[in-house]
Design a protein that fits this description.
Rossmann fold; Spore Coat Polysaccharide Biosynthesis Protein SpsA, Chain A; seven-stranded mixed beta sheet; 38% helix; 19% strand
Length: 473
């Protein structure tokens, strides 16, 4: 090959490598857009030219990099007043603010002290900060080296080849807790139809799901939000045909935090539930506040949403009016939220033995099926998706409503709205076991087969909207 032909070959392969790299990075941008909401504050460590940070449309974005030339390029390419770029070494970076999201995009592979990097990032975090880490999957090492030799991949500097276990261990040592992890980009190139098939669906399936080229890990700070006695709690009690359970609910719901309010939402009952709520509220003389209202529409979610709107507490919890999930368990939920051990406390009726008439066999099978399916959709393990007892901070609920706005009124029960929304916000979901009891008054409001079909539709909805999210081309 003569010299001119050699340079033509090199130029052609460099051009191909740049095109493939561009496609690869566009896919990464879309992955982060699916997890990082616009109009939030974002810190990107190792921001390079700033293209990723700018693509996320932050309310305030700070990019830091140790390279003067990279920061100069970032400043010249992105002049938006919401963006700031600084030369800084993360190991010595002294933050003066906390961010909603911190991004490490393919940085840890080249960092000479990853644990210090994670520890420094923690200084820029508040209790609801999410740390997003993208890193090369070590199983791709031989193919990357082959691609470099063929000129399809740009020459890479020496790299730390970190397994998922390595990263998880360093995060835990540094004060972070992992919320979700996955491998992404089974096909890191833009090939019409095939890229979508490989990257949206195949990479999610058993066995294949470990083979994406990028490891994507989201973590949160291991921190308490504060002391439980500093928080007020609102207990929402949806009640339809539960006349005999109103006074027991008032008597049995415990005091939670510095102040507890109980909010009954009556749901178009055919018995005297509404009259009983008014009578018992008037007769109550204790320290807790009692409120009540009739729901304007139908379905449990309609009742829960009204109760949450009326609530004044810092912490919100649903307590089903049938009392089959005992209200005496609520302190366990409250402590878990306030201690920061979880951010969405989800009741589980399937841990302890339940009373003989508490749940029929087909209902039990259905609950196990939906829990397993939802665990796959959410990327976090849950044992019981349909237990009525669920607790979260008011501030998280308000963010959740905005996050699920585009879903519309697809869920009449509310369980899936809350679980899907919590997953999209990357809240740490944990099961809190409850002892499931027999009903002492009235009949169940659940129709196994009619409501089962609705639940199947919602699972399919979650697969499309959450699990199999798309990539931009």
């Amino acid at each position: 090959m003569d010299k001119a032909a050699h340079f033509d070959w090199v130029a052609d392969h460099d051009s191909k490598a740049r095109a493939l790299q561009s496609s690869f990075h566009r896919q990464l941008q879309q992955l982060l857009k699916n997890r990082v909401q616009e109009n939030t504050t974002i810190l990107e460590i190792g921001c390079g030219r700033g293209d990723l940070l700018a693509s996320l449309n932050p309310k305030r974005g700070l990019g830091i990099d140790f390279s003067n030339s990279m920061i100069d390029q970032a400043r010249s390419r992105h002049s938006d007043e919401t963006l700031e770029f600084k030369v800084s070494d993360i190991h010595q970076h002294s933050p003066d603010e906390a961010f909603d999201h911190i991004i490490l995009d393919y940085l840890i592979g080249y960092d000479d002290d990853i644990q210090v990097c994670f520890q420094q990032a923690l200084k820029s975090a508040h209790p609801r900060t999410r740390l997003h880490i993208l890193s090369l999957n070590a199983v791709w090492s031989p193919l990357i080296k082959l691609g470099e030799a063929m000129g399809l991949v740009m020459k890479q500097p020496p790299s730390n080849w970190l397994s998922t276990k390595d990263i998880l261990n360093l995060l835990e040592l540094s004060g972070w807790e992992v919320i979700s992890r996955s491998s992404e980009q089974l096909l890191p190139f833009n090939i019409p139809l095939l890229s979508s098939l490989f990257n949206r669906f195949l990479v999610r399936l058993p066995l294949i799901r470990h083979w994406g080229i990028s490891l994507f890990i989201t973590a949160r700070p291991q921190r308490s939000i504060g002391r439980s006695w500093d928080y007020k709690c609102s207990v929402i009690v949806p009640a339809r045909n539960e006349s005999g359970n109103i006074k027991p609910a008032i008597d049995r719901i415990p005091n939670l935090g510095k102040e507890t309010e109980i909010i009954f939402i009556e749901g178009n009952s055919t018995d005297d539930t509404w009259d009983t709520i008014q009578k018992e509220a008037a007769a109550y003389s204790g320290k807790r506040k009692i409120k009540f209202a009739k729901q304007p529409g139908k379905g449990k979610w309609d009742a829960v949403r009204l109760g949450f709107e009326m609530a004044t507490g810092d912490v919100l919890v649903i307590q089903d009016g049938d009392l089959t999930a005992p209200p005496e368990d609520l302190p366990k939920f409250f402590e878990a939220i306030c201690d920061g051990r979880c951010e969405f406390a989800n009741g589980s009726r399937l841990v302890y033995p339940m009373e003989s008439k508490a749940m029929r066999f087909l209902n039990l099978l259905g609950n196990k099926f939906f829990a397993a399916t939802l665990s796959f959709v959410l990327g976090q393990d849950i044992k019981d998706s349909l237990c009525g007892t669920k607790m979260m901070l008011r501030t998280d609920y308000e963010r959740l409503l905005k996050r699920i706005e585009s879903f519309g009124d697809f869920d009449p029960f509310g369980d899936f709205n809350l679980l899907f929304g919590s997953s999209l916000l990357q809240l740490r979901i944990r099961d809190i076991p409850v002892r499931y009891k027999d009903r002492t008054y009235g009949d169940t409001n659940i129709s196994r087969f009619r409501h089962g079909l609705i639940l199947l539709k919602m699972v399919w909805f979650g697969l499309r909207k959450i699990k199999f999210q798309g990539y931009s081309k």
